[in-house]
Design goal:
Blueprint (H helix, E strand, L loop, with lengths): L2 H23 L9 H10 L9 H13 L5 H32 L6 H19 L2 H6 L6 H21 L6 H14 L10 H12 L4 H30 L18 H24 L2 H17 L3 H8 L12 H8 L18 H7 L17 E6 L5 E6 L5 H25 L1 E2 L14 H6 L11 E2 L3 H16 L1 H14 L1 H7 L14 H22 L7 H26 L6 H10 L7 E4 L6 H10 L6 E4 L6 H9 L14 H4 L13 E3 L2 E6 L2 H4 L6 H6 L1 E6 L2 E6 L2 E6 L1 H13 L5 E4 L14 E4 L2 E4 L11 E2 L1 H9 L29 H25 L2 H14 L9 H13 L3 H20 L5 H8 L6 H11 L3 H23 L8 H27 L1
Parallel strand pairs: 5-6, 5-12, 13-15
Antiparallel strand pairs: 1-2, 3-4, 7-11, 8-9, 10-11, 12-14, 13-14
Helix pairs in contact: 1-4, 1-5, 2-3, 2-4, 2-24, 3-4, 4-5, 4-7, 4-21, 5-21, 5-22, 7-8, 8-12, 9-10, 9-19, 10-11, 10-14, 11-12, 16-20, 18-19, 18-21, 19-20, 19-21, 21-22, 30-31, 31-32, 33-34, 33-36, 34-36, 36-37, 37-38
């Protein structure tokens, strides 16, 4: 067979397999996380979170415009599908060039063609089915597109390497420079290839000496620094007239300088001059450097899109980078603050501190003890000051421990092994799946998709990659070094630079796709190494064909077969539906407080792209700590929606710096009682109590976040977001409905816990204290409409309409990861709360029964298992409804789950402790209750006896410990109650037998 034909067939096959894989598994609508934000920003060319991705948004807009069919969210997702398919094609083209390079000759025979091109195909398809790359390829995030730029740059590096001795080879270097500049409009990942590019040029054009190698290494660092932060951050700062460096107070050392504004202009003019000069005087090196700099700048100009679109005042205009000053802040991600490189542990919030100081089962520190920083006064040029952190007592050994154990091992190597060894679970922080299944078995006990785990590759991709790595160094040390540097820069060193803090809200493996791509190439080299080692004894064509075929089966085919079930997002409309259900839980012109990415970005997508409930104003409380966002809420009317009623003066919002003394800022203080005047006609909407109506007041205690005790009183931190909620509350005065999304935690309620009424996926803030207090009362009528008027078709309402969507939550064909499953569990609580309330308040057994049956019909019990407590709650409800068949079914399931939790040490010590004190309905109590519900008296008494035995052991332990002696009377009381229960069960059992 013609060797060129083999090459073309394999290249086409790599592209087609990839495209089909991702087209079949891509999410059919908007995904969670930043995807909804990017989809909305792409559709209307808006301004997303810093530092933006203008090129990605423009390209995605083309997909939205020209794909003739499909959901708008799906169209934007397809940008990643196409990007990934082209990446796989490029990985194939790069890998066979790597192999040709280390062979020292081109493909000449069919044997060579099968060996080289077949090995490259294994590499390409292995990367295609790798965990992280697959995740990135089926959603509308920037990481697939950024990896495409890296692949293009590597391919051009290899093409330059082939043509380096021929005239015109400089075009590849120039194109690389342009692509690096262009790629900044997507992500900064491709900048990390600079080091490898410099080494490749050095090895190709110069003779190796250690002295020159060290110089080149320093030179590569300088070139990298010129690009980042030089071009990316410093040139915009200089154009704004600011010095690139800041002082301790985070102010520019020099500001608004005309001379500094001239520097970037002079640099560009100088580059243009030297380009012209090099052509005239035949100075190719000078010309190449100058031209590369110009092309880099030209590529970077995609960021002018941010300035243009921000000044168009789109509904999404984060940070409002309307001028060069604001653009500098936007590019510098100043909204997120600055993370120090040392110490590695620097956050001071309690949930970080707990993890910094966590201990293992033996009481030893996992990382090492951590001491919080002291506060230091820092003064600005105008004399005003603020407090900043200063670390004095740094545990160096602990910081290095943290760097290795968490930031390198947990946050990079674990992901590396996910991709090339296997994955034990989709739960947060799950480890790699090596050769046993113990971790997977433990993690996936309550996972409805446990049959899909562990995903095991038996470390074969890892082994092939290691073979390839060592073979590469044995045959072509220089090129192997180029790729090793690339792997390390986009892998370990990127992980160090990320400086991730423990814990993280989600997994972060998507950052490292570039490193995993390099490893996939070494997998292909490893296949060739095996063929090369056998060719002396087996030189017929069937040998390399057999090796390639076996390699395809045990690497990419196995990876695809193992990974398909956890990577397919076909039929996953959950983010769309969940966001739709939030919006359709509220009344017209509502104000809804949300908290994070997943209850905000998909909602923005529905409003911006699909036109759903544009009358609703979303107030994201994370952004609510920024003044530009509050200003937009107060003064803008996106899509014609009403302004959010805010009384904060504009002068306090329109400041250059949030450390400005005039800026609206946080405060410290005690909780204080608040009395707000409420019109009687509004009070009548929420209560019929004439005394409350006539009083005309809403009284509650305004609180923030607990900070510390001072002189016996609790001091609270009132964050900007806390003050914002309070200001909207008193300014709006219930003229428009206000809600907390059901996803918002009670820690942000500012003391309004007792004034909330649940309806659908939103908790309405009322001026009247609710009788059920912090459990939140329930609007039965609204909840009934939301749940019973469900519509699982692809049609939806853009105007207010009570009626939820629960698409594809009852079929094993569709997969939902842990993030989705947590929210799906929340759906069940809606049905259970409704059933409980409609039964207790209206005694409507038919509707209560209907709610429970509908819950089980719409939400699969097998795919989304309930825990033993929820299952017992369902059994109790069915029992009250005299539905003995269903009650017994769930009671039996509850016993099974509770015993399983005990056997697998899943019961928290606090639960065990309070159950033995008789202050908590723990697993033994639940099992006894459920057994009693089924009239299984012997089992009920058996479980009570087990609890009694544990309580007696606990009593002996605390009696010998003076510090815990105070608990003895609680245990004694519990033992007495347990004995009474057994006595009553014996009586009832005897009566039942007598009957």
């Amino acid at each position: 067979m013609d060797k060129k034909l083999i090459n073309r067939i394999f290249a086409i096959l790599a592209f087609v397999v990839s495209f089909v894989t991702y087209a079949l598994t891509v999410q059919p609508s908007v995904p969670f996380w930043d995807c909804g934000e990017f989809a909305g920003a792409s559709t209307w060319q808006q301004v997303p979170h810093p530092p933006g991705a203008p090129l990605f948004l423009m390209v995605a807009k083309l997909f939205h415009m020209f794909l003739p069919f499909g959901d708008p969210g799906w169209k934007i997702n397809m940008t990643s599908v196409f990007a990934d398919a082209f990446i796989i094609l490029l990985v194939y083209l790069i890998t066979y060039r790597i192999i040709e390079q280390l062979r020292g000759k081109k493909v000449e025979t069919t044997f060579d063609a099968i060996s080289v091109y077949g090995s490259a195909l294994v590499a390409a398809l292995a990367f295609n089915f790798s965990d992280t790359f697959w995740f990135n390829g089926v959603e509308s995030e920037v990481y697939a597109s950024s990896t495409l730029f890296v692949a293009l740059i590597i391919y051009l590096m290899m093409r330059w390497n082939e043509e380096a001795d021929n005239p015109g080879h400089e075009k590849y270097i120039l194109l690389i420079a342009y692509l690096i500049g262009l790629s900044t409009g997507v992500h900064l990942l491709s900048i990390l290839t600079i080091f490898s590019i410099v080494y490749l040029i050095y090895f190709r054009k110069y003779k190796f000496k250690w002295s020159t190698f060290i110089i080149v290494s320093i030179l590569s660092t300088i070139i990298f620094s010129i690009i980042y932060p030089g071009v990316v951050k410093w040139i915009p700062a200089l154009l704004a007239g600011h010095s690139p460096m800041k002082n301790e107070a985070r102010e520019y050392i020099i500001e608004d300088s005309f001379i500094l504004r001239l520097i970037p202009i002079i640099l560009v003019i100088a580059a243009g001059y030297y380009t012209w000069f090099s052509i005239k005087k035949s100075r190719p090196v000078i010309g190449l450097v100058a031209s590369s700099f110009l092309l880099l700048i030209i590529g970077y100009t995609t960021y002018t899109q941010v300035l243009v679109r921000s000044n168009a005042n789109p509904p999404m205009n984060e940070n409002e980078p309307k001028n060069i000053d604001r653009l500098v802040s936007y590019l510098g991600r100043e909204q997120y603050g600055e993370a120090p490189n040392w110490p590695r542990r620097y956050q001071t919030d309690s949930y970080y501190v707990r993890n910094y100081n966590k201990q293992d089962d033996k009481g030893n520190y996992v990382y090492g003890p951590w001491t919080p920083p002291k506060k230091k006064d820092v003064y600005k040029k105008d004399g005003t000051g603020f407090l900043t952190n200063e670390f004095e007592d740094i545990n160096t050994a602990g910081e290095l421990n943290y760097l290795w154990k968490y930031q390198i091992d947990h946050m990079f190597l674990r992901y590396f092994f996910w991709n090339f060894v296997g994955r034990s679970s989709d739960l947060q922080d799950a480890g790699a799946a090596w050769f046993d299944t113990r971790e997977a078995d433990a993690l996936n006990i309550n996972n409805g998709y446990r049959d899909r785990f562990p995903v095991r590759f038996f470390a074969i991709p890892l082994l092939f990659g290691l073979i390839g790595l060592f073979f590469h160094f044995s045959r072509d040390k220089k090129m192997a070094w180029v790729y090793l540097v690339m792997f390390l820069m986009m892998g370990v060193l990127a992980a160090i630079q990320q400086n991730q803090q423990d814990p993280q809200p989600r997994e972060r493996d998507y950052f490292y796709a570039g490193a995993f791509m390099v490893w996939a190439m070494w997998i292909g080299v490893g296949v060739y190494a095996i063929i090369d080692s056998l060719k002396k004894n087996y030189n017929k064509n069937f040998m390399p064909a057999t090796i390639v075929a076996i390699s395809l089966l045990i690497v990419p085919v196995n990876m695809g077969a193992q990974g398909w079930g956890i990577h397919t997002r076909a039929g996953n409309y959950f983010p769309f539906d969940y966001s739709y259900n939030i919006l359709q839980s509220v009344e017209k012109d509502a104000i809804v407080f949300t908290n994070g990415d997943n209850d905000t970005f998909p909602v923005w997508f529905l409003q911006d792209v699909e036109g759903v409930r544009r009358d609703v104003r979303i107030v994201n409380l994370s952004l609510g700590n920024t003044l530009w966002y509050i200003d937009q809420l107060k003064n803008r009317e996106p899509w014609g929606a009403l302004k959010v009623p805010i009384s904060i003066p504009n002068d306090s919002l329109e400041v250059e710096d949030e450390t400005d003394p005039n800026a609206y800022s946080y405060e410290f203080g005690e909780a204080h009682n608040v009395s707000l005047d409420v019109p009687k006609d509004i009070l009548k909407q929420f209560t019929s109590d004439s005394s409350v109506i006539n009083q005309g007041k809403m009284n509650f205690t305004y609180v923030g976040q607990q900070y510390r005790e001072y002189e016996g009183k609790m001091i609270y931190l009132f964050r900007v977001q806390d003050k914002l909620i309070f200001d909207i509350l008193k300014t709006n005065m219930f003229k428009r409905p206000m809600y907390f999304s059901a996803t918002v935690g009670s820690d942000v309620y500012i003391g309004l816990d007792d004034f909330l009424v649940r309806g659908g996926l939103a908790l309405r803030i009322t001026p009247v204290k609710q009788p059920r207090g912090k459990a939140a009362d329930l609007d039965i009528d609204i909840m009934e409409k939301c749940l019973f008027n469900y519509d699982n078709s692809n049609d939806f309402h853009r105007e207010p309409h009570y009626g939820f969507k629960f698409r594809n939550l009852n079929s094993p064909k569709y997969y939902y990861d842990e993030v989705h499953r947590r929210s799906i569990t929340g759906y069940r609580l809606l049905f259970l709360d409704y059933a409980q309330n409609v039964l207790s308040q209206r005694h409507d057994t038919l509707k209560a029964n209907k709610a429970l049956d509908l819950m089980n019909q719409l939400i699969s019990i097998d795919l989304f298992p309930m825990d033993w407590e929820t299952t017992a709650q369902v059994a109790d409800l069915y029992n009250k409804l005299n539905n003995s068949k269903q009650a017994n079914k769930f009671a039996e399931l509850s016993i099974k789950l509770a015993q399983q939790a005990i056997d697998n040490n899943q019961i928290m010590r606090e639960m065990q402790f309070y159950e033995l004190l008789g202050r908590y309905r723990g697993p033994y109590s639940v099992m006894a209750d459920m057994a009693y519900l089924m009239k299984n008296y012997n089992l009920a008494m058996e479980k009570i006896n087990q609890e009694m035995s544990m309580a007696q052991q606990f009593m002996q332990a605390i009696q010998s410990d003076p510090q815990n002696a105070g608990y003895a009377h609680y245990v004694t009381e519990n033992l007495n109650n347990l004995r009474k229960k057994i006595f009553m069960l014996q009586l009832e059992q005897a009566e039942a037998k007598g009957g």
